[in-house]
Design brief:
Blueprint lengths: L8 H16 L18 H28 L5 H34 L3
Length: about 110
């Protein structure tokens, strides 16, 4: 499939018109999300959402694997893809946790 078939001319025109309006100043872009009354979530809320999403991926994968194992489903490929997705999201979450712990350790080692 070529890239030309993936491009939607109408969405490109819409994007260009939005950028044109932003350049003219007709559309205000908030540097702070609270400028438009949108509260940004805290770091702990974001982490909780991501942990919940990883847990949901793992539960979904387990359910698909159980269905294949019990013979209720013959979608082995779907179950394996879900399993790999859950594994990848868990590994990513663990790498993020490791980097956060490492950054915390670096901050704690800083002299006052």
């Amino acid at each position: 499939m070529s890239n030309a078939t993936l491009i939607n001319p109408q969405s490109m025109m819409d994007t260009m018109s939005i950028h044109t309006e932003m350049a003219k100043g007709a559309i205000k872009v908030a540097s702070n999300p609270r400028d438009f009354g949108v509260a940004s979530p805290s770091f702990s809320e974001l982490m909780q959402q991501k942990v919940t999403a990883v847990n949901a991926d793992q539960n979904h994968s387990s359910a698909l694997m159980r269905a294949v194992d019990s013979g209720q489903s013959d979608d082995l490929v779907g179950a394996m893809v879900a399993s790999q997705k859950a594994s990848l999201s868990f590994s990513t979450m663990m790498q993020i946790r490791n980097r956060l712990v490492q950054a915390f350790d670096e901050v704690m080692k800083m002299p006052l």
